[in-house]
Design a protein that fits this description.
- Residues 47-297 form the G-protein coupled receptors family 1 profile domain.
- There is one protein chain.
- Helix 3 runs antiparallel to helix 12.
- The protein starts with a helix and ends with a helix.
- With 321 residues, the protein is mainly α.
- It has a three-stranded mixed beta sheet.
- It is globular.
- The protein is 75% helix and 3% strand.
- The protein has 14 helices and three strands.
C-alpha cells in the first residue's frame, strides 16, 4: 500500500523548474567550450549588426536581395541571442535552473527562428530564380512590396505553425525527472521527461519538419534546378560564369544550413551511445550559421565588401594609400 501511495504521490507532483545539465558525458570539462562558443556569439552579433548598418547606410545596397539579407541578419541575431546567454551562464556560473514557462518560450522562439531562416532562404532562392530566368521582368516582380509581403507571410506561417510545439509540451505532466542532458530546451529533450504519453508531441514535431523545412528545401532546390537549366542554355561561358556567381553565396548558405540540419537529425541516432554528439551539434547548428552567414556574403559579394569598407572607414584609407 505504501508503494502504491508513493507512486500516486509522485504522479501528482509537478516539477517547478528544469535543470539544464549541459553537454552530456563531458560535464567536468565542458566549461572549456565556453571560450569558442562566446567568440562565435560575439562574431555572430558583430557581423550581423555590421551587415544591418551597411545595408542601411549604403544606397547601392537598397535592393531586394540585400533587404532579404538584412532580414536574415535579424533572424540570426535573434536565434543566437535566444540560446547563447543561457548556455554561457550554464558554463560560467552553473546557472542551470530554468523555469517551465522560460523553457517552453525558448522552445517556441528556437523553432520560430529556425523556420524563419528556412523561409528567408526560400525567398532568396525565388529572388535569384527571377533575376536569372526572367531578368527583364525582375524589377517589376521582385519589388519592395514583394519583399514585405513575403516576409510577413513567413512570419505569419512560422509564428502560427510553431505555437502547438510549446503548447503541447506544456500540456504534458512532469512528475519526477527534471534534469535535461542539454544546454538548451529542445522539444523532444523536454517532453522525454514527461510521465504521460508524448506521441502527439513526436507526431507534430515530425509534421512541422516536413511541412516547413521539407517544403522549403524542396522548393529551394527546385528553383536552383530551373536556374541551372536556364544557365546551361546560354552560349557564352562568360555569361554562364557571371550568372552562377550571382547566386553562389546564397547557394553556399543553403547547402550549409540544410546539410547541418540533416547532420543534426542523423546524429540523433547515436544519442544512446554518444549523447554528447547530437547535443553539441544542436548547439553549433544554432550558433554557427549566424556567425558564418555574414562572412560568406562578405567574401563572395563585391558590393557588400565595398559597403563594409565605407562603413568602417577603410575605403578612404585605402584610396589615400
Amino acid at each position: 500500500m505504501d508503494t502504491i501511495q508513493s507512486i500516486n504521490n509522485s504522479s501528482m507532483f509537478q516539477v517547478s523548474e528544469f535543470i539544464l545539465m549541459g553537454l552530456p558525458g563531458i560535464h567536468e570539462w565542458q566549461h572549456w567550450l565556453s571560450l569558442p562558443l562566446a567568440l562565435l556569439y560575439i562574431l555572430a552579433l558583430g557581423a550581423n549588426i555590421l551587415i544591418l548598418i551597411t545595408i542601411q547606410h549604403e544606397p547601392s545596397l537598397h535592393q531586394p536581395l540585400y533587404w532579404l539579407l538584412g532580414i536574415l541578419a535579424i533572424v540570426d541575431i535573434g536565434l543566437a541571442t535566444t540560446i547563447m546567454p543561457k548556455i554561457l551562464a550554464i558554463l560560467w556560473f552553473e546557472a542551470k535552473a530554468i523555469s517551465l514557462p522560460e523553457c517552453f518560450a525558448q522552445i517556441y522562439v528556437i523553432h520560430s527562428f529556425m523556420c524563419m531562416e528556412s523561409g528567408i532562404f526560400l525567398c532568396m532562392a525565388v529572388d535569384r530564380y527571377v533575376a536569372i530566368c526572367y531578368p527583364l521582368r525582375y524589377p517589376s516582380i521582385v519589388t519592395e512590396a514583394f519583399v514585405i509581403k513575403a516576409t510577413l507571410s513567413m512570419v505569419l506561417r512560422n509564428s502560427l505553425l510553431t505555437i502547438p510545439v510549446p503548447v503541447l509540451a506544456a500540456q504534458r505532466h512532469y512528475c519526477s525527472r527534471n534534469e535535461i542532458d542539454h544546454c538548451l530546451c529542445s522539444n523532444l529533450g523536454v517532453t522525454s521527461l514527461a510521465c504521460d504519453d508524448i506521441t502527439i508531441n513526436r507526431f507534430y514535431q515530425l509534421v512541422l519538419v516536413w511541412v516547413i523545412a521539407g517544403s522549403d528545401m524542396g522548393l529551394v532546390f527546385a528553383s536552383y534546378a530551373l536556374i541551372i537549366r536556364s544557365v546551361m542554355r546560354l552560349n557564352s561561358a562568360e555569361a554562364i560564369s557571371k550568372a552562377l556567381s550571382t547566386c553562389s553565396s546564397h547557394l553556399i548558405l543553403i547547402l550549409f544550413f540544410y546539410t547541418a540540419a540533416i547532420v543534426v537529425s542523423v546524429t540523433q541516432l547515436a544519442e544512446r551511445k554518444l549523447p554528447v554528439i547530437p547535443a553539441l551539434f544542436n548547439v553549433l547548428h544554432n550558433v554557427m550559421p549566424p556567425a558564418f552567414n555574414p562572412m560568406v556574403y562578405a567574401l563572395r559579394t563585391q558590393e557588400l565588401r565595398a559597403g563594409f569598407q565605407k562603413v568602417l572607414g577603410l575605403g578612404d584609407n585605402m584610396s589615400r594609400k
